[in-house]
Amino acid sequence: MYFYNYLCCPKCQKDLDISVEKKSNHTIETGKLTCVGCGRVYPITGHIPRFVESDNYATSFGFQWERFNQIRYDSYTKSNLIRNTILRRSGWEKDHFNGKLLLECGCGAGHDTEALLNMGAKVLSFDFSSSVEQAWKQNSQYKNLLIVQADIANLPIKKEMFDIVFCHRVIQHTPNPKKSFYSIAARVKKDGDMFLHSYSTRLKSMLHYKYLLRPITKRMSLETIYKLLDRFGPCLYKLVGLAIKYRLKFFRKIIPFENMDSLVEKHNLTLSDEEKYQFSFMVTFDALTPKYDKPNSYRTIRNWFKDAGFDHIVVRRKKPVVVVGTRCV
Ligand SMILES: [Zn+2]
Prior knowledge:
By secondary structure, this protein is of the alpha/beta class. The chain has two domains: 2-200 and 295-327, 3-Layer(aba) Sandwich (Rossmann fold), CATH 3.40.50.150; 203-288, no CATH class. 38% of the residues lie in helices and 22% in strands. Zinc ion (ZN) is lined by residues 9, 11-12, 14, 35, 37-38, 40.
C-alpha cells in the first residue's frame, strides 16, 4: 500500500481513491483507483494498476518478453552481470541504492528491477507494454515493489518525490524522447539523482544493421520478423561468431544478428548452448522490432539535464550515452 501514496491521476494529477477487491500477500491483486478530481477509473488487475490500454506502441516488447522470459535475470544466470552493469554505468556504489525511493522508468521484463531491489532500493516501476506481467511474475516476492502499466509522457506518479529516477535502455523507444525526459525528470526530488541511458547518434552507432534494416522491419509484423529470425538465425549467429573471432568489426555490425557468446563467457553466466543462442536471438529481436528508435547525442542530453535544473551533471559514457545528475532546484 505504501507505494499507492505516490500515484495520482495521469490526466489531472489529483489523488486517487483506492477500492480493494482482492488482496493477496502484500499487494492489491484486483481493485480500482478512482480520481477524486475528474472521476476517471483505473483498474488494478494481476497486482498491477493499469493506466493505459494494453495494445500500444510498445507491443513488441511485451511480445518479446513473453518468449524469452528467464535467461537474463542475475538470479537465473547466477551472476552479477545486470547489477554490475548498473553500477559501472552509473558510477554509484551499491550502498547508494540502499533504502532509497527509486522510480524505474520502463522496467521491461524486470531484469534491472531485480538487481535494484537486491541492492535495497524501494522500487516503483512502470512500463508501457504488457512486459509488466513478466516483471511482476519474476519479482513478486519483493515487498518493496509496485509495478504499474503507464505511459512515460503521462505519468500517474506524483512530482518531486523520488530519491533516484532510473531510466535504462528506454528513452529512445518513446515517440518523443525529449518530452519523456522532462516527464521523468520532474519526478526527481530536490537533491535527488537521475540516471539516464540512451542510444547514441554517433556515426559508429548508426552504422548498424538495425538502422539499415529499419525502413523494412518497421513495416513487418512481429510474427514475420520472428519467423525470419527463427529460420536464418542459426546460420547468421555462426557467421557473426566468425566475424568476431577474426575481428571483422564491420561485418559484425552489418550482419543482422547478434552473438553474445563472449559476454556470456566473460561474465561466467550459467547458460546452456541453446540458451546462449536464445540470448543472442533476443538481443537481435530487441534491436529490430521497436516501433521507435530515436537516439540522441550526449550534448543534447546534457543540455536537457541543465535545462531541467540539474547540477553535478556527469557524462559517464558517450556511446551509448549515459548521463547522471543531481537536481538542485
Ligand atoms: Zn483525474
